[in-house]
Specification:
This protein is α+β, with helices and mostly antiparallel strands. It has 4 domains: 169 residues, 2-Layer Sandwich (Beta-Lactamase); 126 residues, 2-Layer Sandwich (GMP Synthetase, Chain A, domain 3); 133 residues, Beta-Lactamase, CATH 3.30.450.90; 275 residues, 3-Layer(aba) Sandwich (Rossmann fold), CATH 3.40.50. The protein is 37% helix and 23% strand. It is elongated, with a radius of gyration of 34 Å. The chain starts with a helix and ends with a helix. It binds zinc ion.
């Protein structure tokens, strides 16, 4: 029986001892009699988990000597089993193998201590020592003096384990949450980490946001996880670790779902790599399926764990990335020993490059980056939906061979490694020819390569452009005019070329002669006469335009109005009876007018020629497979009203309750919650009222106000419309510049 004041007094004494700066193991001799008296038991052991090891160690003094027992965290011992399962255990007779077998078929009692002394173990109370959900050790109490251990003993022992756990955590310098160490390193503020944690659905999403929004590296995240979970961090190192082959019941989908990889090093030491190494239930399942006695545990980042499991790949000719990397890994034992592309590895290198290209096309990536690192493996990254993602690592020893292979494919000089080179290559996938622009750039870490995958195939139909109805009607009126100039404006990568080709596709009929001058020609359409300009050899946009005017055109596309000469020639062409389409690197439609006037264009000529200006951006769209509609919060409602403007908000016909969609994340979208992109548009129409303002060279603000009166809506307003429509979320509007 435990009375309250006995408990209170004992815990006061125990806490006082633990509060001292001395390590717990040094205070053990003081602690032991107190705990044994409290629980009415004969002996005890405190096992501490060894930092970064998959075992427990108990130390005790006999006389002047300190003895140590090490016990693996496995079902082969009682303390090991409690550490593995993280569940307390009362054993009434450790010599009863039937009682043990009911707990776990392989559970054994280590009787060698009894055998070497006169002591006999009769009963055991064994409690896991946990802190912040992480297993820190095991408290084992032996032989209740009168009767058997019961639930009351269990409760008291659990309370003891709690205070010991806090002491262990303090001693080991552990953190109380997985990413606290990042705050400690000043990589992120406590406040931002809290916000991110609260608004992320799970650790997986949180890690992705730490990487993408806070620019925290894999290594830093791995270190934080390692400090918290007290196990080593292992990144994706295919040249060091390989998947452990066993005939276990662990199938790939189970491992993927639980984010676990069973890997082995060169000496076949088995490592269970988990995203959540404190998940005891999962560890127990894996332990049972593997049926092995010894393995280490390590923590990994979900994406990297999935890479060990062979993340992605659609099969097919080049072979899976991991298989190829494995093959390369096993045939290259000597690190840093550069091999050339003619060595025995060449076929694997050829397939590796081919796999990278096919993966990029499959993921709909726009760019591939092969980045050399000063020390360590080469990083392969791909830009998908405008965001760069880490894809693979190539062993540093194969960097030169990979670069050489790409340079050969794109007809570059492989011997020249000191100056940047540009080239092109093409490959075939699914019967489709894909063109790739290649740039090699020497860096201090070695030669890097950036490849731009040129959009292949035909133009996007105008109906797929996701143009708001009001914009669509006005845009059609503009492009149906027999002459005039329409400008599509926005920064690089805002989808201007796609939009222009969608418009050309709409206008492309046999009775129209269409000429285009582009740099480069990315999209081809039957029926168009497309010309690649080459300023390097003096074939400029302005030259091309002059040539077109002698070739009986109806519609002319000029890739970009880079200078006054081109802009002037474009306006002249439109005033002489042609429809001219072109682009400019300006931010908004009204700003484009002042930019052109600043270039020195005549305001009267320009405003007479111009039929409209379409500013656009691309924003990410929510994954249609996992997006969820929820009522807008007050803050979101205010944001929508403020950004759309009170005077315009009625035209959105908002429903009540006001619903917005949120990114969740699923397999289809790589757990990002987003898939694909869509355009947002700001379409300025040249009306007589606006024209008179251009004549007067009025301010951007005045012209914008008039354009809005005439029906223009801003990029942010169009984005809000697409939030209400469920295409995207408010975060994407904020990226666009709403506040
Ligand atoms: Zn999804």
């Amino acid at each position: 029986m435990y009375t309250n004041d006995v408990l209170e007094r004992s815990f006061q004494q125990i806490n006082a001892i633990l509060a001292r700066e001395t390590p717990l193991m040094d205070a053990y001799q003081e602690l032991e009699p107190l705990i044994l008296e409290l629980l009415g038991a004969e002996r005890m052991s405190i096992f501490q988990r060894r930092l970064q090891h998959q075992d427990l160690v108990a130390r005790f003094k006999t006389g002047k000597e300190t003895k140590e027992i090490k016990v693996p965290i496995s079902p082969l011992s009682i303390a090991g089993y409690v550490a593995l399962s993280q569940l307390p255990l009362i054993i009434n007779d450790p010599y009863d193998s039937h009682e043990l077998a009911q707990i776990h078929p392989r559970l054994r009692f280590a009787d060698r201590f009894d055998k070497n002394s006169t002591f006999k173990t009769n009963s055991i109370l064994c409690i896991p020592i946990l802190n912040a959900g992480v297993m820190m050790g095991v408290l084992q109490i032996i032989n209740k003096k009168s009767g058997q251990f019961d639930d009351a003993d269990l409760r008291v022992a659990t309370k003891l384990a709690d205070v010991i756990g806090a002491k262990f955590r303090y001693e080991l310098g552990g953190t109380s949450a997985p990413f606290d160490y990042l705050v400690h390193l000043n990589l992120i503020s406590d406040k931002v980490l809290k916000e991110l944690t609260e608004t992320s659905s799970d650790d997986k999403q949180l890690i992705q946001r730490l990487q993408s929004e806070q620019r925290i590296t894999d290594e830093q995240i791995g270190k934080a996880l390692s400090v918290h979970y007290q196990v080593p961090y292992i990144s994706y190192l295919p040249d060091k670790y390989h998947p452990y082959q066993s005939d276990s019941k662990l199938n790939a989908s189970y491992l993927k779902r639980n984010c676990v990889a069973v890997i082995a090093d060169a000496n076949e030491n088995i490592i269970v790599l988990l995203a959540e190494p404190n998940n005891a239930a999962l560890l127990m399942e894996i332990e049972r399926a593997l049926g092995i006695d010894s393995y280490d545990i390590a923590v990994g980042i979900p994406n990297q764990i999935l890479q060990y499991l062979g993340g992605g790949g659609s099969g097919g000719a080049p072979g899976e990335m991991n298989e190829i990397l494995d093959e390369i890994g096993t045939s290259a034992d000597e690190k840093d020993d550069q091999i050339d592309e003619l060595s025995d590895d060449a076929p694997a290198i050829v397939r590796l490059v081919s796999r990278i290209l096919h993966d990029a096309k499959r993921l709909n990536a726009s760019d591939i980056h092969i980045d050399p690192e000063k020390s360590g493996p080469t990083r392969v990254r791909m830009r998908v939906d405008g965001v760069c993602r880490d894809m693979n690592q190539v062993p540093a020893s194969h960097h030169s061979a990979v670069i050489a292979r790409i340079k050969i494919m794109s007809n570059l000089n492989i011997a020249e490694k000191r100056v940047p080179q540009d080239g092109k290559l093409a490959f075939r996938t699914g019967g489709q020819l894909v063109e790739v622009r290649v740039a090699s750039i020497p860096t201090v870490a070695g030669e890097g390569v950036v490849m731009r995958i040129l959009a292949s195939g035909g133009a996007m139909p105008i109906d797929k452009m996701n143009v708001a109805p009001n914009n669509r009607t006005r845009l059609e009126e503009m492009i149906k005019k027999p002459h005039g100039i329409l400008l599509v404006v926005g920064p690089t990568g805002s989808g201007k070329t796609t939009t222009l080709h969608a418009i050309l596709g709409y206008l492309n009929t046999p009775e129209k002669k269409i000429w285009t001058a582009e740099d480069p020609v990315e999209i081809t359409q039957a029926g168009l006469q497309q010309v690649q300009v080459s300023p390097k050899i003096g074939f400029t946009f302005a030259n091309a335009l002059r040539a077109f005017l002698r070739a009986d055109p109806d519609i002319i596309l000029i890739g970009e109005m880079r200078d006054k000469e081109t802009a002037h020639a474009g306006i002249e062409a439109s005033l002489t009876g042609h429809l001219v389409l072109s682009t400019l690197h300006t931010n908004s439609a009204p700003e484009t007018i002042t930019r052109l006037l600043d270039l020195g264009l005549d305001p009267v000529n320009f405003s007479d020629a111009c039929v409209g200006i379409l500013a656009q951006r691309l924003i990410r769209t929510l994954c249609t497979n996992c997006k969820e509609a929820e009522p807008a919060t007050d803050a979101e409602r205010q944001f929508i009203y403020r950004q759309y403007g009170e005077e315009y908000i009625d035209e959105l016909h908002l429903s009540e309750p006001l619903m917005v969609h949120r990114a969740k994340g699923c397999e289809a979208c790589g757990d990002t919650g987003y898939k694909g992109r869509t355009g947002v548009h700001e379409l300025l129409g040249m009306t007589p009222e606006l024209r008179s303002l251009v004549y007067k060279e009025a301010s951007v603000a005045q012209m914008k106000a008039q354009a809005m009166k005439d029906g223009m809506r801003t990029l942010v307003q169009d984005a809000i419309y697409k939030v209400i429509k469920g295409d995207t979320d408010i975060a994407q509007v904020q990226i666009l510049g709403g506040d």
